[in-house]
Amino acid sequence: MASSYKDEDGHISVKKPENTAFKQQRLPAWQPVLTAGTVLPAFFIIGLIFIPIGIGLYVTSNNIKEFEIDYTGLDPSSPCFNCSQNFSWNSTKPCTCSIPFYLEQPYESNVFMYYGLSNFYQNHRRYVKSRDDSQLNGNEESLRKPSKECEPYARHDNRPIAPCGAIANSMFNDTLELFYSDPNGTKTQIPLTATGIAWWTDKHVKFRNPGGNNDNLTAAFQGTTKPINWRRPAYELDSDPENNGFINEDFIVWMRTAALPTFRKLYRIIQRRNTMVPTLPRGNYTLEVVYNYPVRSFDGRKRMIFSTISWMGGKNPFLGIAYITVGSVCFLLGVILLFIHHKYDNRNNNPDISSN
Amino acid sequence: MGSVVSSFGNLCGKEKKQEEERHLRANDRPFNLSYLYANNAIKTSKYNVFTFLPLNLFEQFTRLANAYFLFLLLLQLIPQVSSLSWFTTAVPLILVLSMTAVKDASDDINRHRCDRQVNNRQVNVLTDGELKKEKWMNVQVGDIVKLESNHFVTADLLLLSSSEPLNLVYVETAELDGETNLKVKQALTVTGEMGDNIEALSTFRGEVRCEPPNNRLDKFKGNLTVNGQTYGLDNDKILLRGCTLRNTEWCFGLVIFGGPDTKLMQNSGKTTFKRTSIDHLMNVLVLCIFGFLGTMCFVLAIGNAIWEVKEGSVFTAFLPREAGVNAALSSFLSFWSYVIVLNTVVPISLYVSVEIIRLGNSFYIDWDRKMYYPKNDTPAQARTTTLNEELGQIKYIFSDKTGTLTQNIMTFNKCSINGKNYGELFDFSGQRVEVTEKTQRVDFSWNQLADPNFIFHDYSLLETVKEGNPEARAFFRLLALCHTVMPEEKKEGELNYQAQSPDEGALVTAARNFGFVFRSRTPETITIMEMGRKVTCELLAVLDFNNVRKRMSVIVRSPEGKMTLYCKGADTIIYERLHPSCKKLMDVTTGHLNEYAGDGLRTLVLAYKDLEESYMDGWRQRHHEASTAMEGQEEMLNELYEEIEKDMTLLGATAVEDKLQDGVPQTIEQLAKADIKIWVLTGDKQETAENIGYSCNMLREEMKDVFIVAANTAEGVKEELQNARRKMCPEAAEEPSVIKARAGLFWLQKTETVRDEKVDGDYGLIINGHSLAFALEKDLELELLRTACMCQTVICCRVTPLQKAQVVQLVKKYKQAVTLAIGDGANDVSMIKAAHIGVGISGQEGMQAVLSSDFSFAQFRYLQRLLLVHGRWSYLRMCKFLRYFFYKNFTFTFVHFWYAFFCGFSAQTVYDEWFITLYNLMYTALPILSLCLFDQDVNDRWSFQYPQLYSPGQLNMYFSKKAFVRCMMHSCYSSLILFFIPWAAMHDTVRDDGRDIADYQSFALLAQTCLLVVVSAQLCLDTHYWTTVNQLFVWGSLATYFAVTFTMYSNGMFLIFTSVFPFIGTARNSLNQPNVWLTIFLISLLCILPVVALRFVLLQIRPTINDKVRHMVGKEVLPSPAPRRPPARRISTRQSGYAFSHSQGYGNLVTSQGFLLKRPLKGRSILFTQTDSALAENKPQQYRTITEEVEESQSSHSW
Asked: What domains, with CATH codes, occur in chain B?
């Protein structure tokens, strides 16, 4: 506070405010003004930066190879038509169909195999919250007493469901297998890697089996029941103990719900084995589908996608086009603004303030 | 009889009903207690420890915004509806509530402390026959207390007796009505006789019946019954709580009203709540937003219904519906779910932030050294912290004159004696020299009785007097004799004058310094020291001043026996009564008078006349008869006065300067440039007001015309107003064009606006109180308003306080413009309260005006800084804040709206819940605060250089409904970009290792990061004034966001609170992707670039005044201000009719025997009974006031 002192005229100044830059609103400041000198170059420079980036992105995206098969089987001519028609959750005999296709280009590097679903509202609020993260994290208590959020998939036959909730219950359970048909007619199955498809954090932190590192998953899941739609309990998802139970990567991938109703999820990786041979050479292939997953009832679609990737991820021409467009628009705007500036500049240089 | 009444009183007193009459008996506690009157403890605090929480919470929830959020919180607790976790609303709500609660609590603790301190004051109470110290709070109605000098009055007391003669006491009422002068109260003789006889007092059994407690400070009705005799009681016998006893050794009083019943407490706490126009607009907008919110939710609910029927019903295999929920119910639930999700359009932090910003800007006003007045150590003060931005929108200023424009200090400035002009300085070449602080002053040290504060610069006058010039001596002798000033000489040689009007004081002081010292007076004599020689003159008659006579005379007999009539008065009046022989002198003096008037000085003409002994005898006889006559006394006296006051000899003229405050003309010029209209509302007379109008540059010689409206009938006023209007604007329609509109909440309020009319050239309007009274009638008010608003300058003189308020209200009503009233006296209070903003000038006339004002400072000239700098900045900042705040929240919310179309209208949020919680509280709070506390378009010097910068505020240019709609469109655009670009960029993309990135959590992270980057960039674009704090806050907030996000999405947090932070790893996994950053970059530019381009184009095509000035600021140094030219001397042809600034004189009091007989021995002069109405007078400061008893009707014309 201001202290009591006398100023030059001998007046006592107890209440004289302090003379600080803050209190007197004189803080040093930078006061930028939009001027032609800053705005116009900015537009041109942005334009000049964006167009090359956009071209780079576009070219990269175009170099990515992608192949997609819709195997929903809505069309009577489709091999999967029968499977899609006769679907029943309770059928014990799996329905299989095989779809032949021809790859026109060889796929050189690692190929990623996705399944895609359409019109599937994984982002519906009730769906998104229908899970119990504690249970999935291996919490014993939650395993026995799933969270209320999981309703109506929390308990079945008076036993807790593990994993509980609508997300887990609706897990994608088609099996996709790929066969390469040699020109000489032999079919070889292409090996698909089922691990390394989930986020590291999900696999190692977010999802854990109950009972810690207990090898005996069957015992850990004792007293729980499988989700209603599942054919097998969680501890029988895979034979590999590192990929079983809650840490089964197919399961983890499914549990990472999609943002939009049309989405794709990584299913398998086709590792490149030999640098000399393309991962997927050009030729005839067959996709063998064990058709378990019903989508017809809600007009959904199922797809299988092969894709290579680049530094910017999968094929998506949008970003490249957007960058090119924005860059060009910026450049154009720069020209227009320059024109406007030129036209009105004279008037601006002699601001007649008093006339206002 | 007493017992009957008392037993009756006992019966009804028990019931706590509206008190109709107060009845009490001195020294009889049991009797008085039976009425259950409040004791003297006061309680201004609202809460105690236990009631604080419930009461305060209740109060807070009565506010619409808080109640709304409570409602939301409750909604969120319904699981079917809850689309967000409870904490998204609870955390901000609790924060807001606790902040307010802490503020309320600290306020209340202060009040508690105050109360305790006051309640524990000690006072002597007469109990059981002796005086005992007692705490104030224990004093009961009916107790007799003893007060001593400088004590505060404990409660409302009936004065019983005092140490002073005539049972007088002197009290200072500053705390009550703000007047610093002492007032006199007088006890009844019957009680006064008791003196300080404790025995008599303790056996005193007087009974008082009086009015119930009320808040009228100037009225009291009641009676006192002592020994069967009944005496009337009025306000003169009552000491009110809040007063201080002065100059009185002791006094005894009977407590009549205690604690909460006292007039002081009854008067407090009823402040009207002023709201700014932005406040009103904000309420309307919030209501609109509610409607908008409802519409959005409705649309989405319909969407939900459609989705449920078409998609949801078939999707049940994977997402079963809850039991009993069909499409219709689901749609209903989703409506409420969306109310929750979209609630951020009505931002909870809006009101809190607005308050904080206003508080900050108020502090700047308090801290401003350039509004600090060192002479009396007064800083400017923002007494209301909620009106700041309105300071930037003022269109009309209503100013008081005395004490506001002027200092209310009269200085004897010039005089003309026998045709010679004194008081001006000339250099060797004969050029007039401007008198400054440094000019050498005349040395009066030879005169021991001289007033050291008196300043005069012209030596020649003193020399003339010393030479013995008879005219000069007669001139000053007249000034020393002809007045009604009371001298006060506490110590030998220490003279103090108590003058009724400061003019008189100035004149008598001038005479004193020039060697004619008025020393003392008795009813019959006046003693003066004439050049060191004591002369006692016999005072034969005082021919008093009144408004019609406009002159005053005294008739004295000198020790030599010569009888003389001395007269001073208005020039026009005196000139008619001069002897024809003075013709030549009159012409010369008229020249001088015109010169003085041109300088804005107040002039008086002095004349004298020698009287014959024989004539005088007869006249005195008749005078005596006339003054004792029962009927027609006044006319007879007037006739007598007329008879004797003629054929006088002219002595000269005096010119008294009504000193303007420093910088008044410049301030007025600046404000006029800022397109602010200034109306002066003064109680002064027309001539004075006109003078001041000229001297402070409001009226100018080059004005086309100055209309004077001074008619005495409604028709006359109408005609004069119409004539003026027709002259100014002949083509204007006869009927005013009134625009009728509706405004306010729910458009309930009807408004009528009179359009401004364009007029060529400058005109002035002067209207007097009488005409104003007619003009303010219903049928004429529009005529008045039209005419007045066409004029550059409006001066209303002789206005009552009520009329001041009426004028303000008239403008407020029909102009829909923001008004400001500035004044310093109690008579300005009504106008200060009526205007949108009231400014009090502190220091001159007590504290009354300041206490009811919203802002206060010591000098009128600070007004330009308050408006042009602080007001402008506050308005700018507030508007920027609102525009940005709405933008920020709309953008935030609209993204949810777009997302609804992709998530089955299920009320799924786009962002992480924690982000929703912290967005307003943490990530954007500080940058916006720094924007709104530091931003300035141009600094204060440029603001002064270009007062035109002020006008956008008057036109509501920065924030209005239009601006709000623009904000919404902008938000809409931004939100579209913010949703659809990530959508397009992400929907089929994978990470660079082939894994998913199109998942909900990554999308949420991307969307919220983009949003934050975009709103931060927008903030940067809006910031004109980049201080380090701004930088720190902007970058700090972004850094905080990333830090918080990474922390919340970390393994540790997930493992500890598994279900609270499910976003684990999202930040790491998606923010290391180049395409995520490319998307963020793209979105930011897409949101910002169009804004930059648009602003640049507007800057080029339609630059505003701000843009131009800012452009210049960037390029040039501040042009040096134009040199201040000395005001050109006006040779005015206007006759100054001015005489005295006071009302009816009180010559009869001066000469009355009764009052002066019992002169106090202590040498303190007696003070006369004060006028009751605090509002009704003008109180000069230089000299202590003596005011006389005036009738109510007169007093309204008397300041």
From this structure: 39-120 (no CATH), 121-268 (2.70.150.10), 360-404+661-859 (3.40.50.1000), 406-659 (3.40.1110.10), 879-1111 (no CATH)
